[in-house]
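Think of the structure tokens as a kind of shorthand, similar to the way a musician reads notation: each symbol stands for something richer, in this case the local conformation of the backbone. In the example below we present two proteins back to back. Begin with the first one, reading the sequence and then the tokens, and try to describe in your own words what changes along the chain.
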Amino acid sequence: MFSKIASITLPIFTIVLVGFLYGRRVKPDLGGANKLIVDIALPALIFISLSAKSFDPVSALSFTGASIVLILLTGLIAWPFTRFSGATMQAFLPCAMFTNVGPIGIPLIALAYGPEGMAPAVVLLVISNILHFTLGAGVMSGKVDWRMVYANPLVWSTVLGVASSQFQIAFPDWIQTSCTLIGSVLVPMMLMSLGVRLASSQVADAWVGARSGVLILIIRLAAVLMALWFIPLQGLERGALILFACLPSAVFNFMLADKFQVEPNKVASTVIIGHILSLAFLPLGIWLAFI
């Protein structure tokens, strides 16, 4: 199983390394590129991914509720530990609450449980996306702005993707191909941008990332055990929720931190060090998921 985890995470490190080396040499300004990723490429990828998947939150009501409880509970537990992380609350809480469920979580759950694992994985993806780009963005921006909900392309792409899946709307091939091509630039560009940001980070930022990464993993483990005490789950759903809690922080946290200028160097360090720590922590999560 370790080799499977490595096969998922090592390509992430490789692409980040490319961005890091390029950033050290060229020092590019990626502000415009990051805005393009968040405003266009990310919504296109979310829409095309969700519209092609079966998502039924009603049939998995307990799991949906447990997913929401886990995310909110993680934030509540993490709040008083912010001062130990070395980062601000706006930077630390979203990194604790929102995991890399898309690029790592879905493949990991699929590897662990096979095709049956896709249903809870999609529930996690949808719930995490909706809360991340509403609540998480609100925490990072430092204000509650309802325009971040009703005028946010990330939220609308999630809603439209789920609606398309529910009503089985078939789009013309050219629309699907266009969205797929636009969305395909997201992951490599996002990871290379993360590497470029790391190239401008200081040693102090890496120390903050290490402290935050360890704190986040401990907090999430405590949160998932509490969530499962509140909403007992069994079998696959229980295991999927534990694996979700053991994932590293979402790379999207860095994109939002860069957009709102909320300590992006510290967030970048937290994200990448969290992925390194996950190589050791995920086997524990897999063991807990199957006991």
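Once you have a description of the first chain, move to the second and do the same.
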Amino acid sequence: MKKVLAAMIIATMTVSALVGCGSQAAPAAEASTEAASEEASEAAATEEAASEEVAADGQTYHVGVLQQLEHPALDAATEGFVAALTEKFGDSITFDVQNAQGEQANCATIANGFVADGVDLIMANATTALQCAAAATDSIPVLGTSVTDYATALDIADWSGVTGKNISGTSDLAPINEQEAMLKELFPEAKKVGILYCSAEPNSAYQAKVFEECLEKDGIEFAEYTAADSNEIQAVATTAASECDVLYIPTDNTMAGNTETVKNIIVPAGIPAIVGEEGICAGCGVATLSISYYDLGYKTGEMAAEILANGADVTTMAVEYAPQVTKKYNAEICETLGVTIPEGYEAIATE
């Protein structure tokens, strides 16, 4: 009996002890939960503060985007530019994106409008847009993109890589000597090369000159075929197709906006074209050594962020170039013309 009573007492004490432990553990668990909750809240607050760091003082930015005309390359550059700045500033930045529809007068009107509105920065997409923005302001930072040669566009004789003005940006110049090497690789039997571009675009003339120098070194005959505007393209392209074995079309906004016209002339005539960028190649070319215009625009956006957020001096910012180039070809036109593309080329995606 004493053994039973002792066992009962021990059992009672054990239960009491367990209950006591439980009553102490509950507040500890609650305290731990509260601490974890506080830590999570602090972490969330820190993350939110970091995301709003750029606009901590309530600063907002208004950027004007002047695009010379609509075509895939320029559209992609604008898209990349907006994406880079949106990632950086979020809702603290707004854009006024306007398209000049290929008209110089429209470019000037839009640029002057941005200046009147007091935008914080102007992005000028393509050469004429850059020239009009430069004429409109010498104080608001201007960043160009899809511009081949800034020295030519801005009439700078002693080019050092920086403009010394309120202007910088990115260049879409692909290695022209490599484009000429591409022509030789694909068409080694070519006797005469026609260089087709718009004479109203100084950067196209610059590319043509460099390409011609490469052809001269290789002893290949060439001739220029220039159109003053889109109305002359059909006649000029027809003449070029009748006199040449291969055409070279540089990065040219007028030609880029009229690739269907060029294609309908040169493809039936059996004349292939090596071109300066992917958008033109997709429309009327056989192959190109092209850059990513989205990446180019994105890089321009990063430069803009440095100016807006960090106060970078645009007058000392070096013009930037595309990080890489890619050999691409138009599979449809190559098949039509019976052109065999060697390894190392990427087919242009088609819808």
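Compare your description with these statements about the second chain. The first helix runs from residue 2 to 51.
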